[in-house]
């Protein structure tokens, strides 16, 4: 069969798993997850056990993007740490099997909150969920990268300098129209680059509540998902990523908390979340947070520009949503400039 971002050759997958995954027994069926714009992800169902397959999209891709092999490596390395991840099983780097690299992991049976207001929860439950989100973030940044074998997972040097350079190139490679605010933001991030303060930790790269699975009837995080942007870098980028998401419009589209009375819902303010994180890590506070927040808006603008480009090229994971998301590039760029100036 023809492999696309929307389809999966189940016969080929089943044959591969039967020969490589201990304990696997068919028959096999699959369902594509709706969420996610980067690497197509499928639920694999068998009578005894469910798995998840995450693959690179087929077709022409930007260099260094869609690194499912890195996702597999980092999650396997975190298996025995305080950072909850799904169990990794197999990485297949043979493109001839289904047309692109993929990996197999356990399916984590829990619940996902696409809306950070969590409308079905009580105030104490909302507070506890965000508290556990904070706990996991601090735990991630305290992982001993040498002990888990990830000391070479990212290059040395100024993380922000490296990332601004990388995502500027990615943005230019997927640019479909000129956006003056994005041009200005890229220049401003270079001009205001902070000095390297020596912090070097594992970072997720897209840390937000909808990339986490929680207990079905509890508040504890069972797994952090979507590690494509993970590397060794600066922890404040992950922290700012959370705050960035909360500044977006409320609802399923924006998935933010803009205009929401957080106290009335039992949700923390930005300052309270940052203070809890600093307390967990033993930090006195964070200077120049506006830069880190601006960087996150910039990186997300570059990412969703790539999503838009893939939609126009015909190989997006979710074409309809990709076109909608792509319209937010100027919004993220403007917000990045506001954060930098504010």
UniProtKB/TrEMBL annotation:
Pfam families, A to Z: APH
Classification via Gene3D superfamilies: 3.90.1200.10, Phosphorylase Kinase, domain 1
Domain of life from the UniProt record: Bacteria
Ranges where the Aminoglycoside phosphotransferase domain occurs: 30-253
Entries under InterPro entries matching the protein: ACAD10-like, ACAD10_11_N, Aminoglycoside_PTrfase, Kinase-like_dom_sf
Record-given protein name: Phosphotransferase family protein
Native organism: Sedimentitalea xiamensis
């Amino acid at each position: 069969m023809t492999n696309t971002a929307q389809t999966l050759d189940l016969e080929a997958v089943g044959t591969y798993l039967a020969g490589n995954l201990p304990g696997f027994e068919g028959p096999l069926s699959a369902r594509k997850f709706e969420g996610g714009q980067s690497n197509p992800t499928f639920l694999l169902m068998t009578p005894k056990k469910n798995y998840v397959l995450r693959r690179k999209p087929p077709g022409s891709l930007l260099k260094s993007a869609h690194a499912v092999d890195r996702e597999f490596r980092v999650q396997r390395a975190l298996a025995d740490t305080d950072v909850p991840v799904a169990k990794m099983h197999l990485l297949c780097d043979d493109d001839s099997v289904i047309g692109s690299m993929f990996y197999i992991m356990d399916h984590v049976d829990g619940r996902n909150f696409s809306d950070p207001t969590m409308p079905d929860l009580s105030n104490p439950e909302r507070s506890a969920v965000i508290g556990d989100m904070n706990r996991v973030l601090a735990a991630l940044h305290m992982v001993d990268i040498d002990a888990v074998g990830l000391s070479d997972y990212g290059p040395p040097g100024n993380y922000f300098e490296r990332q601004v350079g990388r995502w500027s190139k990615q943005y230019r490679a997927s640019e479909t129209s000129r956006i003056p605010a994005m041009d200005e933001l890229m220049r401003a991030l270079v001009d205001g680059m902070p000095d390297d303060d020596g912090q070097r930790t594992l970072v997720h790269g897209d840390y937000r509540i909808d990339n986490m699975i929680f207990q079905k009837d509890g508040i504890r995080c069972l797994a952090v998902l979507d590690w494509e942007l993970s590397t060794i870098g600066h922890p404040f980028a992950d922290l700012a990523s959370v705050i960035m998401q909360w500044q977006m419009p409320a609802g399923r589209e924006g998935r933010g908390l803009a205009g929401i009375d957080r106290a009335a819902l039992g949700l923390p303010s930005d300052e309270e979340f940052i203070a809890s994180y600093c307390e967990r890590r033993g930090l006195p506070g964070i200077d120049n947070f506006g830069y880190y927040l601006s960087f996150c808006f910039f990186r997300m603008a570059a990412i969703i520009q790539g999503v838009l480009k893939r939609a126009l090229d015909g190989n997006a994971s979710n074409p309809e949503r990709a076109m909608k998301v792509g319209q937010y590039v100027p919004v993220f760029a403007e917000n990045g400039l506001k954060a930098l100036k504010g």
